[in-house]
Amino acid sequence: MIIKSVLTVVSAIALLSGCGLSAASQPPAGCPAGGWDAALVWSSGTDPAGDIAFVRGGEVVGRQSLPFQGLDPAPSDGIFRTEGAAWLKSNGDTGRDRTTVLRYDTRACAAEGHRVDEQVIRAVIPHAEGFVTTNTVNGEARVIRRDGAGKVVATSAFPDLTVTALRETGDAVLALGSTMGTESDTAVLLELDGTTLKERRRVTLDGVVGSDDLVLRGDRLYYPKTVVRRTPGGAEVEGSALGVVTLSDLRQSEVDLGAPAPAVLAADELAIYVAHTFMNPSFRDPNEYHTVTRLDTATGAVQSFDAGPGLLSIAVRGDRLFAVNQVDRGTPTVTTYRLPDFTRIASATVPPPQGQYFYVAGLLAP
Fold first, then answer.
1. b/e map of 75-87 (b: 16 or more CB within 10 Å)?
2. Are the beta carbons of 295 and 343 closer than 8 angstroms?
3. Which range (24-38, 88-102, 132-146, 149-163) has the least confidence?
4. Contact in structure between 301 and 265 (CB atoms under 8 Å)
5. Which residues neighbour 346 within 8 Å (Cβ) at sequence distance 6 or greater?
6. What is the CA radius of gyration of the chain?
7. Strand order in the sheet with 123-127
8. What is the DSSP string of 289-306?
């Protein structure tokens, strides 16, 4: 059963105190004095609270405890950003069924959480007055729409699929995922009715095995071809392109970026920025991932720059791009670049919070 109450960060301390949160977990009120440029999110699968480290220039200027557990690790940071807010999913200790959808207000530096009865949420987006989530249970993808109180108002199931990314466009919800259980699983894009979540259309993204992000630009959807299969039944290898689907007719094309493993996307009004990275050393040492690519969506021009080894994730705000790097899983850095020329402005070292095992769970920007 869904727990319908909405938990703010402060009230969550009281409501979750029985789950191991102490008074020391209480976050500071509001944002750091003087503001912040970016924030590194730390999470843990064992510690009951995460941490947000606020960065301004080359310094950490404040920290805030986040009393939620089990956020997705970067580079699959699972953060959907809207103006003034970021949406995250806390899958917690799944054995204790503590899954929570988080909305983090980047202006007030405060979070609210909706407890849901899904064991592992794969993606979440805001929708109407509520939100839409997806999970995979018993070999089928489930997409669920809830109202502002967290009550389920629509649900759909898709056998033999898993869905990893969601976006809203007009009166539809787009779901990016892949088939499961075949010799040559491939990516699939579904268009769902925004109210009922019933399937309207689908298109197979031939040759693409893995992709967890997407950006909409008018009638075009861009997604990273992170892992591909060059021939049917062939080996899985790193891709090097952004796939493009024209939504009006489902026509497919691609833009070659010239660097392996495009994965994390960020965007401004003029361009899409791509962090080339991967979750694990399946294809190469993670330290070898270092490229950020800029695609001008009006002209198609591609520009790349070296963001340094161990690239995990990026975020964009105004004329600034923020990149987090972690070499040999050591202490990460958050580096600020000026756009569009990628001039390096500052870099801050961000140590993990004290406590049990923590990992980088992504970047926020105000």
1. bbbbbbbeeebbb
2. no
3. 24-38
4. no
5. 57, 58, 335, 336
6. 20
7. 123-127, 130-137, 140-146, 152-159
8. --EEEEEETTT--EEEEE
**What length does the chain have?**
366
Cβ atoms of 358 and 51 within 8 Å: the answer is: yes
Q: What is the DSSP string of 32-80?
A: PTT--SEEEEEE-SSSS-EEEEEEETTEEEEEEEE----BPPTTS--PE
pTM metric for this prediction:
0.89
Query: What tens digit of pLDDT does each residue of 248-299 get?
Result: 999 999 999 999 999 999 999 999 999 999 988 899 999 999 999 999 999 9
Give the number of other Cβ atoms within 10 Å of residue 269's Cβ: 6
What is the DSSP secondary-structure string of 243-271? Answer: EEEETTTTEEEEEE-SSS-EEEEEE-SSE
- 3-class DSSP assignment, residue 232: coil
Torsion of CA 102, 103, 108, 109, to 10 degrees: 40
> How do beta strands 311-317 and 302-306 pair?
unpaired
CA nearest 291: which of 315, 275, 271, 314?
A: 275
List of residues 6+ apart from 29 with CB closer than 8 A? none
Contact 194, 127 (CB under 8 A): yes
Closest CA to 262 of 214, 218, 326, 323: 214
pLDDT one-digit tens code per residue, 130-149:
999 999 999 999 999 999 88
Q: How far apart are CA 220 and CA 81, in angstroms?
A: 19
Its sign, for the CA torsion 277, 278, 283, 284, is positive
- The count of other CB atoms within 10 Å of the CB of residue 26 is 17
Residues 287, 360: Cα–Cα separation, whole Å: 15
- The residue type of 243 is G
- Any residues with CB less than 8 A from the CB of 70 and at least 6 apart, and which? 43, 44, 45, 90, 91, 92, 93, 94, 98
